[in-house]
């Protein structure tokens, strides 16, 4: 990558929001600051999932860290509209998706070729991610559209799991999550495809709403797949979907509580 790809405006992608209207240093102000949830949310999720990370899967914290990287990369891209920023933004989304799928997809959904081996599955997902990373440099203008197709297998897997889940709270979270994802995609498409219409209405900020809605959709999706994973592979841990700050308030922050053995805890 040459130095010109670091320059402001070097990306072929420019979203609907007008450039440098609020600050001379930030190209798309609303699109930049709307990534704030990606920075504020994950540290708290690391706290809520401390028992999950200790007793079930420490790599859950990798997902939260990657979400922070997504937020930083997206903010950098929208602040500069550089090609480097665009690629960082898109590739971090790809890697957080593939990491979540690799670590938490229930084994029964693995293609037969992997023989229910998570090691083989993770290796194949890593190879795919590396290949996709290389291809992303070929036609940067279409990367965002290609990433949208990742929602298809994720939604299908979620649908398959929700069909058999017995916990009604988990089911309701899955339905809400899917609804918010659809709303986020509608915002993304409108900002990308119908910019002139929204600009005439003096509201070229739907991509900023996409950032907010996709985080509100993405982190519960990770929570759901973390629940499916432990329910499938460690059912003796009796995972429970809970909410912060009040467990009876289902519009709070969801997390997976592990009912571990206190004696085991003391032995550690």
UniProtKB/TrEMBL annotation:
Transmembrane segments: 29-49, 61-79, 91-109, 209-230
Main location: membrane
Binding site for Ca(2+): 14-15, 17, 19, 28
Cofactor(s) demanded: Zn(2+)
GO terms of biological process kind: ceramide catabolic process
The keyword Hydrolase belongs to this UniProt entry's keyword annotation: yes
Membrane topology: Multi-pass membrane protein
Keyword Thylakoid set for record: no
Assigned protein family: Belongs to the alkaline ceramidase family.
Protein name: Alkaline ceramidase
Organism of derivation: Anopheles coluzzii (African malaria mosquito)
